[in-house]
Amino acid sequence: MRKKISAAIIGLGIAGVSLLGTGSAGSHGYTDSPTSRQEFCANGTVQDCGDIQWEPQSVEGPKGFPSHGPSDGTICAGGNSRFAQLDDPRGGQWPATPVTAGQSFTFRWRLTARHATTDFSYYLTKPGYDPTRPLTRSDLEDQPFLTVPYGGRIPDATVTHQGTIPDGRTGKQLILAVWTIADTGNAFYACSDVQF
């Protein structure tokens, strides 16, 4: 009997440690349309990505973008140094999704864990953006071109939003997608390189 109780206590202890180890990351997600940098790393298209290749869903950082959130130069990694490879512009050579100014586009998130949501927002870089430099706030338009409010609802595991790609861009640009969580201090970030 004593062995069974001890085994049960040990089992509960291991389960508790496992829950604590994952508790800080109760929600996870990334974009795969347009394809995000973390998705390119996870599917092996881009090499030398570090930990993000196993955790494309884990680019979590402080919410409140653009007034708060990750600092300039660390936006694509959500301010998380473990995923700093996402902030490396790689000489402007990240693969890019072809887009056309003014086209209707379906933006898609893959959520590996769902959570109460404030909104999803999408920002586009300004004309003159230099894809060979780390992303800063001054590279992005001040306002998102698409915001989808959720009012604290929990989204499905696959989330799609229909929007229009803004006009006035040519060449290589970047779309920053931000999933803001309602009941934590965090948001999830995904940078997708696009080619006009």
UniProtKB/TrEMBL annotation:
GO MF annotations in UniProt: monooxygenase activity
The keyword Cell inner membrane is assigned to this record: no
Kinase listed as a keyword: no
CDD domains: LPMO_AA10 (cd21177)
Stretch list, region Disordered: 54-93
Residues annotated as domain Chitin-binding type-4: 28-194
Keywords: Monooxygenase, Oxidoreductase, Signal
PANTHER family named in the record: CHITIN-BINDING TYPE-4 DOMAIN-CONTAINING PROTEIN, GLCNAC-BINDING PROTEIN A
Protein name: Lytic polysaccharide monooxygenase
Organism: Streptomyces blastmyceticus
